[in-house]
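Q: what does this look like with alpha-D-glucopyranose bound?
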Amino acid sequence: MLHVAAEMFPFVKTGGLADVVAALPAALQEAGVDARVLLPGYPAVLAALVKSRKVFEGSGLYGAARVTLRHGTLRGSEVPAYVIDAPYLYARDGGPYQDETGREWRDNLQRFALLGWFGAHLAAGDIDGRWQPQILHAHDWHAGLASLILRLHPARTTRSVFTIHNLAYQGRFPLGDFPLLGLPSHCLDGLDGMEFHGDVSFMKAGLIGADAITTVSPTYAREIPTAEFGCGLEGVLRSRTRDLHGILNGVDPGVWNPANDKHLAANYDVAQLDGKSRCKALLQQQMGLTVRSDAPLFAVVSRLSQQKGLDLLLEALPTLIASGGQLVLLGSGDAALESAFREVARAHPAAIAVQLGYDEPLAHRIVAGADAIVLPSRFEPCGLTQLYGLRYGTVPIVRRVGGLADTVDAAVGFVFLEPESTLTAVLQQAIDAFREPALWQARMRAGMRRDHGWSSAASHYVTLYQTLLQAAASPS
Ligand code: ADP
Ligand code: GLC
């Protein structure tokens, strides 16, 4: 089983994709599957690679002067990794997709075409004489070409799965760049081609190339074949509904566990919640908020993008403040949202604290110290922070979409959907509920007892892989 992706926690992460790419292969290994990953050789990934052997060496692929594929392990991870060392494409400061100023790298087409090329050829058995997977599992648009190139391979026996983590990011490039991919021209045309509204789309390549498509929650799997959630790809998805499966993500207990989280000043669990009160007091103090155990403390840990619906939270803040609530927000992204949150924090420093940027330890301290975590997302393929909230006794307040609808209900959190209810209304409900400590604690404990580990997801994936392999062995 080869997982192909652009991110893996803790080496490179911009969002939940990284958490999944670290945890799912590990969970598959625990289920007895030989799961490995293929990653671009960003500096942080290469720096973590140990005990590696050279598997392939070449030049000229997608403009890369020198390309080496290495196989080894990444320090701190049990999952064997293939890493593409192509300095011309990956050896640079900045993020995996953007430079330090937030501009997309101009050669992203080549950077992720190379990832797809290695994914497909490793899967086809062309690259590593010592290992060939039975299944190629490609994640999000960055790995989309792997599915398509493998489908075109004349001698393929390997089956492929493509997982949509977020349909809104599609990897679109000018049609004029298609020749750079070195693919036959029939790969462009019609419903079966990677052309999409006058561009080439790596996401579409993944969708049309794979034998099966999964996404990260059952509700999102039902949403995306519709115009409201399909981001223009609903037609392609409708043509493949038989092959489309929703498998809910889990929580990596090695990373997110309040009983032994090393980022916390005090640990706790469902039987002994005292440590959580200490985490709350310390968080309030650290963030400059009034230290009061009776003030309901709401949290956001999020990318600040249109998807996350945080403009709705801005609208609800006057109600929250007037009712004695507090907010701590950690996030970065959209400049207008960043400055709007900075402004309210400046106006209400005792009630609102905003930290812009990316900070893993602080994310843990916020999830542990807050009373509630807010996700008013417009769409949410799965969402991981509400799951972290559940595990940490931090009550989720969510919009009823995607994975949020599948993981949060009235027994463990608060759910709204316009027009029946609004974020402002459920925040007020949550504040009222917080004033009844026994009931609030019952809700916290109910959430903490929910099992959101990875083993259930891993067994769903194993069943899917087996189904694909059986179908290949006995074609109808
Ligand atoms: P998405 O992948 O859409 O961003 P998820 O809820 O699946 O949403 O995953 C987000 C992940 O990124 C979580 O692990 C969350 O803790 C983390 N995260 C988001 N913003 C920050 C931040 N500013 N600092 C640290 N971690 C963050
Ligand atoms: C995406 C989605 C998020 C999901 C994550 C991991 O980034 O936005 O909802 O949890 O991928 O699958």
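The longest strand covers residues 49-58. The CA atoms of residues 36 and 71 lie 10 Å apart.
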